[in-house]
């Protein structure tokens, strides 16, 4: 994160960075990238793959967590229909959610769109069925994802139509005319990592069919906020933000970047009095242009000539004290003012600063004030304002003094204030959404919103096994994968806190599940004994006189598959410990480009992927965020650059040494930080000497993870920004694995080698589980056959005694799995040991792998359905031996099925 302070070494580096970016940026921008139209076409291909998938009947199951939520960027409400509001919540990467009973139940509305990264929501004041969604989180956080324009619903979110603005990628605000729902203004802030002309303020007068760009500054300056006069809909105010982000630099335009006002001049406040057709700057009294960062604005509804501006102010306020460090331990230089409030009482004609620079304001935005920038004015009190940063802060004297409201998660991005009751507040932050009925003194958490943003996942070898993962702004969590109710009835559970932070990878000792390793920010690493609570920092340190090592925010390390005492850790060098991290040996040179012109305030040129061959100890691969991949075949004595044939400047998201063929290695790369959505999946069968792309058939990326199946050498799995794919032939052809998994950002995948459960860590929807056993049984021979029935999964009855000696039962369903390689006429029945038909099940004849549930009921009873699990019945079959008969055209398959009994 960019600190709100700057050490002098960073100032020198950043000056070089900006000079690099300003001059040759047009060269970088000339790289071939997937256009917006190509992204939509690719997504339609993905949707076709989903609908025609051979595996569309195999379900993913949500694992949770059920006790935490995730980053929300905005909320929108309609007036109560009865006693409760209808609330819409925007997830930063979790889509759009709706409740019609004020949070008792929620419905996901955006599961099948190209992106679930949401920037803003708006409901038409004159028609509450018209809802607008602007995609692309405008906060450009480290884990923000690009949007794909704006969507509109005319039925309260039940269906959506894409309405253009595709290349904007991030949208900060949508404003709908109070009387005419066809008139809409949009503040678009533009691409995160590249200049582009599709930014500024847009307006439509025909419900989104056509758009006019009514405020445009330049390709680096977008609009981040927009507000309409409550009494005059022709008067609008806009805030523009001139920003540029690099892989190694956050988007703060501090004076050290250029030393003058000549370059950064266009962040500011603008006003229109003709419905947005023309605009004039309203910056009299605001900081000098080079000090103006992101700006949030709002208008006092009860006194419309009063406007507030909440400025991320880069003016140096004081020099840092000796030894003073920021929240990440980096030395501070000049401390900037940061969060600053300005007020205008003449419609923006002039501004006066109302807030003082003090410790409270200095810390309001932490090290990343540019992520926030939201403020609200109480609609009934022009002197009462709320500003959002690490906390939700309220002032009743126009910003002179603030107090921080408590009872919520941190990092705040949105606030709704009921215009008829200022005590009714709904807040969105990095922990989800909250409601208050007493002006913020107490809050109720909407904990049912599954928007958890995992970065990664790993597992232990306990029984039942646990999964571990780090969650954006929450820390690390662990949850149990419980198979006691059957593999098709894995419950979503609460997760517990785990060792590590919000950016931690984990490794768990297979000999002792209490021993957990976790990496921290920028390459720190620790070892924890969960049984005793003891934690030891085990960070590699440079020799005296050397520069500090560079580590990724999500620093990567692995446990050797040959010896759990051996740990490999990646920074800009590779380190090895053979005694659980107590001592370290540096076993590589700097494996990045180590380009001084690409060293900024974000740790860059670091190792992001490590993999040791499960076959050969000491055969180790390392990939970096600047596009390099290296191999050592002698435990680190010598390293070879094997990047030739890969994309030269893409983030290495995974390197995977094959567990089946010593010379085979896979690499995935992501172009998210390069504004590139193409899929990069590579395979080498000669230790990286040559590479071939195996991305053909994957519509688009970015690609985040690749995994081999631990039991079937032909199976590969991919996770990208819309879901999961599987290949039955080591990458020659790919198939979607869609059922039960919404369109979501899949950041990591693991397959438990004992229990054959694949777990997906999504960045926006929590974790999901998938039973891979049927996929594992799909041998080349079975795939080539017309039809095949697998051994059924037995059912389970729990029998007891009811009143008067009557029998009562609970049933755990049985499952029948079969394969068809072409469309066929199919029948499926269950017979008892006397040959009597006890049930006829509905079965599909579509090509693919099928799972049919039998709830153990006799023919003619209510079958229930998938997800029924254990359910009380009085018309269930008895324990015993049964036969499953599958008819496929003229062929017939028979398999025994056993129903067993257990005591209650």
Major β-sheet profile: 7 strands, mixed
Q: Globular, elongated, flat, extended or rod-shaped: what is the shape?
A: globular
Number of helices: 6
Arithmetic mean pLDDT: 91
Low-confidence stretches: 1-30, 253-259, 802-806, 863-873
How much of the polypeptide forms β-strand, as a percent range?
Answer: 35-45%
Task: Give the N-terminus to C-terminus distance in angstroms.
Answer: 54 Å
**What is the CA-atom radius of gyration, in angstroms?**
29 Å
Q: Helix proportion of residues, in percent?
A: under 10%
The overall strand count is: 67
User: Which class do the helix and strand fractions yield?
Assistant: mainly beta
Lateral strand order in the biggest sheet:
63-62-66-67-59-60-65
Explain how this protein is built.
The chain is mainly beta and 904 residues long. The protein contains 6 helices and 67 strands. Strands 63-62-66-67-59-60-65 form a 7-stranded mixed sheet, with no helix packed on it. Strands 1, 19, 20, 21 and 22 form a 5-stranded antiparallel sheet that branches.
Question: Layout of helices and strands, plus pairs?
Answer:
Elements: E1 5-6, H1 8-22, H2 25-29, H3 36-51, E2 60-64, E3 72-78, E4 86-91, E5 95-99, E6 107-108, E7 118-124, E8 127-135, E9 150-153, E10 161-162, E11 171-176, E12 184-188, E13 200-204, E14 212-215, E15 221-228, E16 236-242, E17 268-272, E18 280-281, E19 292-299, E20 307-319, E21 334-344, E22 352-353, H4 359-362, E23 374-377, E24 385-388, E25 392-395, E26 403-405, E27 412-418, E28 421-429, E29 432-436, E30 444-445, E31 458-459, E32 466-471, E33 475-480, E34 496-498, E35 506-508, E36 515-519, E37 525-529, E38 534-537, E39 556-559, E40 567-570, E41 574-577, E42 585-586, E43 607-612, E44 620-624, E45 629-632, E46 640-641, E47 651-657, E48 665-670, E49 680-684, E50 692-693, E51 703-708, E52 716-720, E53 724-727, E54 735-736, E55 746-751, E56 757-762, E57 766-771, H5 773-776, H6 780-784, E58 787-789, E59 795-801, E60 807-812, E61 814-820, E62 826-831, E63 837-841, E64 848-854, E65 871-873, E66 880-888, E67 891-902
Parallel strand pairs: 59-67
Antiparallel strand pairs: 1-21, 2-57, 3-4, 4-5, 5-6, 7-8, 8-9, 9-10, 11-12, 12-13, 13-14, 15-16, 16-17, 17-18, 19-20, 20-21, 21-22, 23-24, 24-25, 25-26, 27-28, 28-29, 29-30, 31-32, 32-33, 33-34, 35-36, 36-37, 37-38, 39-40, 40-41, 41-42, 43-44, 44-45, 45-46, 47-48, 48-49, 49-50, 51-52, 52-53, ...
């Amino acid at each position: 994160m960019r600190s709100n302070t700057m050490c002098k070494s960073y100032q020198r580096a950043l000056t070089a960075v900006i000079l690099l970016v300003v001059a040759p940026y047009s060269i970088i921008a000339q790289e071939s990238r997937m256009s917006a139209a190509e992204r939509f076409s690719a997504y339609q291909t993905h949707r076709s793959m989903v609908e025609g998938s051979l595996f569309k009947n195999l379900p993913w199951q949500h694992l949770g967590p059920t006790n935490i939520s995730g980053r929300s960027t905005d909320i929108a409400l309609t007036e109560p229909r009865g006693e409760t509001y209808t609330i819409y919540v925007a997830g930063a990467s979790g889509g759009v959610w709706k409740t019609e009973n004020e949070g008792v139940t929620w419905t996901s509305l955006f599961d099948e769109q190209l992106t679930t990264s949401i920037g803003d929501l708006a409901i038409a004041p004159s028609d509450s069925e018209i809802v607008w969604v602007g995609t692309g989180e405008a906060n450009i956080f480290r884990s923000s994802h690009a949007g794909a324009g704006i969507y509109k619903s005319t039925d309260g979110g039940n269906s959506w139509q894409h309405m253009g603005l595709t290349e904007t990628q991030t949208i900060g605000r949508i404003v709908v005319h109070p009387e005419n729902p066809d008139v809409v203004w949009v503040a678009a802030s533009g691409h995160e990592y590249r200049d582009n002309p599709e930014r500024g303020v847009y307006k439509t007068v025909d419900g989104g069919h056509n758009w006019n760009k009514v405020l445009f500054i330049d390709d680096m300056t977008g609009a981040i906020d927009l507000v309409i006069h409550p009494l005059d809909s022709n008067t609008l105010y806009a805030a523009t933000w001139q920003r540029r982000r690099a892989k190694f630099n956050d988007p703060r335009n501090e004076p050290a970047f250029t030393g003058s006002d000549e370059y950064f001049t266009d962040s500011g406040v603008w006003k229109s009095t003709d419905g947005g057709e023309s605009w004039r700057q309203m910056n009299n009294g605001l900081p000098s242009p080079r000090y103006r960062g992101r700006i949030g604005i709002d208008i006092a509804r009860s006194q419309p000539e009063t406007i507030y501006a909440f400025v991320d102010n880069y003016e140096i306020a004081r020099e840092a004290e000796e030894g003073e460090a920021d929240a990440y331990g980096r030395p501070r230089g000049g401390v900037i003012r940061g969060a600053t409030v300005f007020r205008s009482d003449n419609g923006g004609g002039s501004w006066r600063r109302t807030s003082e620079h003090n410790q409270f304001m200095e810390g309001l935005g932490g090290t990343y004030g540019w992520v926030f920038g939201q403020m609200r004015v109480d609609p009934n009190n022009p002197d009462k304002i709320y500003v959002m940063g690490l906390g939700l802060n309220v002032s009743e004297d126009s910003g002179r003094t603030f107090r921080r409201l408590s009872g919520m998660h941190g990092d705040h991005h949105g606030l709704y204030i009921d215009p008829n009751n200022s005590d009714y507040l709904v807040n969105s932050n990095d922990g989800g959404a909250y409601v208050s009925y007493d002006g913020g003194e107490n809050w109720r958490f909407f904990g049912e919103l599954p928007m958890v943003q995992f970065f990664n996942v790993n597992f232990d070898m306990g029984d039942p096994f646990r999964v571990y993962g780090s969650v954006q702004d929450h820390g690390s969590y662990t949850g149990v994968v419980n198979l006691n109710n059957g593999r098709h009835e894995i419950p979503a559970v609460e997760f517990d806190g785990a060792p590590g932070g919000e950016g931690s990878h984990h490794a768990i000792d297979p000999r002792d599940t209490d021993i957990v390793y976790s990496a921290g920010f920028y390459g720190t690493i620790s070892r924890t004994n969960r049984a005793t609570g003891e934690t030891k920092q085990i960070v590699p340190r440079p020799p005296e006189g050397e520069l500090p090592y560079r580590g990724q925010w999500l620093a990567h390390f692995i446990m050797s598959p040959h010896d759990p005492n051996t740990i490999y850790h990646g920074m800009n060098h590779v380190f090895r410990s053979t005694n659980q991290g107590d001592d370290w040996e540096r076993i590589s040179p700097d494996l990045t480009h180590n380009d001084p012109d690409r060293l900024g305030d974000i740790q860059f040129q670091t190792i992001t992927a490590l993999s040791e061959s499960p076959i050969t100890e000491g055969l180790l691969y390392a990939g970096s965020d600047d596009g390099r991949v290296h191999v050592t075949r002698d435990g680190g004595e010598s390293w070879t650059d094997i990047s030739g044939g890969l994309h030269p400047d893409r983030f290495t998201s995974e390197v995977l040494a094959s567990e089946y063929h010593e010379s085979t290695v896979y690499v995935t790369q992501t172009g998210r930080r390069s504004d590139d959505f193409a899929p990069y999946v590579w395979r080498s069968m000669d230790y990286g000497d040559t590479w071939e792309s195996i991305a053909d058939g994957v519509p688009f990326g970015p690609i985040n993870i690749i995994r081999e199946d631990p039991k079937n050498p032909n199976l590969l799995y991919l996770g990208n920004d819309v879901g999961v794919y599987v290949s039955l032939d080591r990458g020659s052809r790919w198939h979607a694995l869609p059922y039960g998994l919404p369109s979501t950002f899949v950041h990591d995948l693991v397959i438990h080698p004992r229990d054959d459960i694949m777990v997906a860590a999504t960045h926006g929807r929590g974790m999901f589980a998938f039973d891979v056993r049927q996929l594992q049984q799909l041998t080349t021979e079975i795939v080539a056959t017309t039809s095949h029935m697998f051994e059924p999964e037995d059912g389970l009855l729990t029998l007891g005694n009811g009143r008067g000696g009557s029998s009562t039962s609970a049933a755990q369903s049985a499952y029948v799995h079969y394969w068809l390689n072409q469309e066929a006429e199919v029948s499926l029945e269950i017979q008892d040991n006397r040959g009597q038909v006890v049930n006829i099940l509905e079965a599909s004849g579509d090509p693919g792998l099928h799972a049919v549930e039998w709830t153990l009921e006799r023919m003619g009873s209510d079958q229930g359905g998938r997800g029924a699990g254990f359910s009380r019945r009085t018309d269930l079959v008895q324990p015993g031996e049964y036969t499953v008969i599958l008819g496929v055209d003229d062929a017939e398959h028979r398999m025994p099925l056993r129903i067993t009994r257990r005591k209650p």
